Amino acid sequence: MQTTQPVQQFSQQPAPQMMGGQQQIVYVKEQKPKKNVQWIGVALIFVSLFLPYVSIFGEFTVSGFEMMGEVGEMMSGMDSDGSGDGDGDSGDVPVEFVFFGIAMLMLGLSPFIFILSAIISSILLASGKSAKVMGILHMLYTVVFLIVGAIGTVDFIIQISVYDIAGFGFYIGAFASVLFFVE
Q1: In a domain, 53, yes or no
Q2: Are 152 and 99 spatial neighbours (Cβ–Cβ below 8 Å)?
Q3: With contact defined as beta carbons under 8 Å apart, do 173 and 117 qualify?
Q4: Read out DSSP for 18-56?
Q5: Which helix H or strand E contains 2, and what residues bound it?
Q6: Which pTM does this prediction carry?
Q7: What does each of the 183 residues of the chain score in pLDDT, given as a tens digit?
Q8: Alpha carbon 145 to chain centroid distance?
Q9: Is residue 17 assigned to a domain?
Q10: Helices in the chain by DSSP H: which ranges?
């Protein structure tokens, strides 16, 4: 007699990925870009106001806040009655002198422009928005100043431009707006 051996059946277990077990759900929270670099730009503008905006040969310096006070006094001291004749011969003024005057006016108004830019940028950043638009406007003011200052180089006994008068506080405040572009 022959003995029969039982037939073994092989059953294949389903692969783990095919099993109907619980799925793991991972929630990913999208992080907003940090605007710390833009805050550094705002801080640099405020710090620049304590530094020399006008420096004449390193001997005579005026900070941004001092310049704001001086410009304020000059504006309040101006007569508003318009007593000037207006008959001046303006055709004899060289273009370089006109552009030098415009660049000096821009240098004198720069602390006001820069502090306004810093205040608006800090409000934008505090509300969670980007200060890139203020960076564009601030940098536009700086570029216009640089172009007008380059054209307004005058030749007295020596060649002088507004770049020789502007202090490093002005340049720090002017180029701090580059940090508004970083996200």
Answers
A1: yes
A2: yes
A3: no
A4: GS--PPP----PPPPPP-HHHHHHHHHHHHHTTSEEEEE
A5: none
A6: 0.72
A7: 566 666 566 566 655 555 556 777 777 776 665 668 899 999 999 999 999 998 887 788 888 888 888 887 888 777 555 555 555 555 687 888 899 999 999 999 999 999 999 999 999 999 988 889 999 999 999 999 999 999 988 887 888 888 888 899 999 999 999 998 987
A8: 15
A9: no
A10: 36-48, 64-77, 95-126, 132-151, 168-175
- Distance of alpha carbon 69 from alpha carbon 79, whole angstroms: 18
Q: How far apart are CA 164 and CA 153, in angstroms?
A: 10
Tell me whether residue 1 is in a domain: no
Q: What is the tally of structural domains in the chain?
A: 1
Distance CA 141, CA 147 (A): 10
Domain contains 9:
no
Q: From CA 76, how far away is CA 45, in angstroms rounded?
A: 26
List the one residue out of 175, 178, 179, 157 whose CA is nearest residue 166.
175
Domain hosting 117: range is 33-75+94-181
- Provide the residue type at 169 as one letter: G
